[in-house]
Amino acid sequence: MRDAVIIGSGPAGYTAAIYLGRAGYRPLVVAGAVSPGGQLVNTTEVENYPGFPDGVMGPDLMDAMQRQAEKFGAEILWDDVVNVNFRGDVKTITCDQGNTYRAKAVIISTGAAVRKLGVPGEREYSGKGVSYCATCDGFFFRDKPIVVVGGGDSAFTDAEFLTRFGSSVTLIHRREEFRASKILVDRAKANPKMSFLLDSVVDEIHGNQDGVTSLTVRNVNTDEITTVQANGVFVAIGQTPTTGFLGGQLPIGSDGCVLVDGASTCTSVPGVFAAGDVVDGLYRQAVSAAGMGCRAALDAQRYLDNLR
Question: Which GO terms describe its cellular component (predicted)?
Fold first, then answer.
């Protein structure tokens, strides 16, 4: 029996672990087997996290949070949760490697997974030119034409990073206006390596045995078809909250996020809390996830104190 189990890592999970650890609850963090640390481990320089005026690399920030959580007594488990049972006062968490854990309180901070285009050629050329991680794969496209699909902060951050490697970077966005921060848009427009295809979507990705060679792009207003030459296609069109393991035991909103009570992190099940991108379908920032992780830990601590 454990006081608290945190499912997921990232800024929300690690911050919750730091707070619960300092409160003496020694939480177990089921951080994930494939990508512990959340999406920041696949991010380059983070310029807007408070306390780092010169920026900080995403993996370095997550590593520091993990070590800080362990310093205060958190235990990190490199595994994935495949099943949960939230019925009753004692919650049960079953992991992929077969271990089962029981806890009085559970915090869900599983974040969100990258969203895919769902077009012909995407699956076939995944890992052969199609990528969802600019940090991981940008180097492989040195002096080659690159396309980034998306219009938010992630797309612009990836695009700017990829100009270090590609001969050119074309950003394709289905609308005329961008969702990204103005500073990122202005920086991209000033970059001589970058160009834009607006009001456009990717209909198909083409290639050969060596990888991606081109894309079929359609203008959503005129239906005009354009062929764009590219060897690298980086998809940055958003994310889907990771909730499949819940098995329908918690209410999910229309955006796929776990529903919580007002400004708290309390779910509809007593003793179960949620924080980070699995809850937040609007802001989805590292600092807001960390803040929510703090709130989840305080909500869980209050719940555990009342049990005592």
Answer: cytoplasm
